[in-house]
């Protein structure tokens, strides 16, 4: 019998507990696929207790010192599930230096330190697997890195955050305002006590940066991603665009790739009701990938939740353990490319979109003509106008909704800056992008 492949896990939280549970429950299946015994040798957690580990049915050494796991010469695979930038970065780089292969679910670590991590894998001839970092239980990393490896990828777009999608679903379906929908998501376990990374779009920015880096074979930096969240969305805008224009609002991560440049952005967007993303509800995620040979590919599944993420982590463990058992792990890199190369990032001002605009204005003649005249002066063409009878702002003014044809963001910002200075404006204009 082959010697066991030994695992060391740091982080026995929600996902870590799910991983331990899966390893115990599906041990026979996993070992059959690996071709060798797979043993969870050590577990480290700052807050858990040995009793919690024992309750999961695992007889592993428990410690609160991560170095005891990292420096244990018997451990083959280091599993990092603590999240965040530090000390996760230090732990992962130290584990690679110590000769360990790594499995992680840490999208923040990878997005910010992509070049550092994969330079270390090259230097020490070790592997880092990270399927759970994007899309929860959806195997999008493997699909992009392996199944579509022969394609030139021109676009990746997706609903990549289960928390925000749950909030937007409740705002759309139940007419809840943002604070109420967020509280409901927290109560249901789909939002953290501090949901900032999710609702401000940062989590989605991490994920789209990772996907764009794989697709381009370069390092698309987090600073390259133009990022907006959902905290300013009004449920009444969501209701209006659905009823009058047939649009649904979703938080999207979008990467458009050219030979020497990349456009990467995260923001709420209007999409048609017949778009595949429009029916993606609650904690589910969906990603589309456009390749030059395969065309459009769509992946869909649970993007949040304990067992969805655990599924992806255990998949990585199984595949990596198979290579360790066969003696091939590290002979070929998992991620290929120039990890220090950066494509030219398209600045926000040069990005092109159609727009939905809502103005709250004084109820008097000539206002619409004044707004449309300024937009026309800046070269922004209007495709539709609507003036509902019911106001949005407690009687402070009347709303005017405008849809535009495609325009550059920089041009639109200049037009809005001029419009905001007009005396008939009663509230800050609302701008949302339209993705067809």
Low-confidence stretches: none
- Give the helix/strand class: alpha/beta
Strand-residue proportion: 15-25%
Distance between the termini: 57 Å
Secondary-structure map with pairings?
Elements: E1 5-10, H1 14-25, H2 27-34, E2 38-44, H3 50-55, E3 61-63, H4 66-70, E4 77-80, H5 88-97, E5 101-104, H6 107-124, E6 128-129, H7 140-147, E7 153-159, H8 162-174, H9 178-187, H10 196-199, H11 202-216, E8 226-227, H12 235-245, E9 247-257, E10 261-272, E11 284-291, E12 295-302, H13 306-326, E13 344-345, E14 352-361, H14 367-377, E15 382-386, E16 398-404, E17 407-408, H15 409-420, E18 430-434
Helix pairs in contact: 1-13, 2-13, 5-6, 6-11, 8-9, 14-15
Short characterization:
By secondary structure, this protein is of the alpha/beta class. The protein has helices at about 15-25, 25-35, 50-55, 65-70, 90-95, 105-125, 140-145, 160-175, 180-185, 195-200, 200-215, 235-245, 305-325, 365-375, 410-420; strands at about 5-10, 40-45, 60-65, 75-80, 100-105, 130, 155-160, 225, 245-255, 260-270, 285-290, 295-300, 345, 350-360, 380-385, 400-405, 405-410, 430-435.
Labels describing this entry:
436 residues, 15 helices, alpha/beta, twelve-stranded mixed sheet, six-stranded parallel sheet
Question: What can you tell me about this protein's structure?
Answer:
β5 (101-104), α6 (107-124) and β6 form a beta-alpha-beta unit. By secondary structure, the protein is of the alpha/beta class. Helices cover 38% and strands 24% of the residues. α2 (27-34) packs parallel to α13, α6 (107-124) packs parallel to α11 (202-216) and α14 (367-377) packs antiparallel against α15. It is built from 15 helices and 18 strands. The protein has helices at residues 14-25, 27-34, 50-55, 66-70, 88-97, 107-124, 140-147, 162-174, 178-187, 196-199, 202-216, 235-245, 306-326, 367-377, 409-420, and strands at residues 5-10, 38-44, 61-63, 77-80, 101-104, 128-129, 153-159, 226-227, 247-257, 261-272, 284-291, 295-302, 344-345, 352-361, 382-386, 398-404, 407-408, 430-434. 47% of the residues are buried.
